[in-house]
Amino acid sequence: MTSLFRDDGRRIHDLAMDILTTRKPVRVWPLLMERLTKDLPGDLAVLIDLDWTAGTGHALTGSPDWLHQAPLDALIHSHMRAHPLLRHYARTGDRTPLAMDDVADGDWWKSEAYHAGRAAIGIDRQLALPLDARPGQIRGVIMSRDGTGYSDRDLEYAALARSLLDTVEAHEKAVFRLPALADPAEHGITLREMAVLMLLGEGLTAYAIGRRLTIKEATVNKHKENVYRKLGVHDRVTALRKARALDLLPPEPGRDARLNGE
Known about the structure:
Layout: H1 3-21, H2 28-39, E1 44-51, E2 56-63, H3 72-79, H4 84-92, E3 98-99, H5 100-103, H6 112-121, E4 125-131, E5 137-145, H7 152-165, H8 168-176, H9 191-201, H10 206-213, H11 217-231, H12 236-245, H13 255-259
Antiparallel strand pairs: 1-2, 1-5, 3-4, 4-5
Helix pairs in contact: 1-2, 1-7, 3-6, 9-11, 10-11, 11-12
């Protein structure tokens, strides 16, 4: 395996860790916007949610922080239908990450929409990571950087990242339904150890956890040993019971239903 592919694997692993281990669900998307601008890299990243049929939409979050003061919704409302990437996704239903250079003709760079975006937030070369959405809607991340276009390797990374980003909404909904959880740092448990503990709670084997987190099975077992030691236990069942008692993990699935006699 080349160092380039190892680097991509590590970056995707870290992105997955952000999704799995954040203790503040409201911070999931801002965290991911920050990571994407570093990993690809880019000058900015914006999560958008558009109703193409109605011609309306919103920017939900973005990075860097100054974007929250920018007129993103006004740009969307005025120019979304002229945007070549958005037109492509609306017309085709495609979910492949694409760069602006893949779909735009020479007229785009002379258009009012391009110059309005460049004047307001400095957009130039763009990359889109379209996410799953209902018919007639477009949801995804639009990234931009000045001058240098996105390479084939950037697009490969974007395709891997897109598959992870599509899990975020389901993950967020699950986390928002949970009671507030304790901070694992209070028990000396690191975020990576916590990710392993959470996946143990889902019933995954060490091998499956390694595949999920893109780490070696031996590394998973080391994290397990550390968690067991820090919790003062010696096996998975007792570790999960102790972690739930300490509010490190949510209640066992189905427990509330059994208590209510359902």
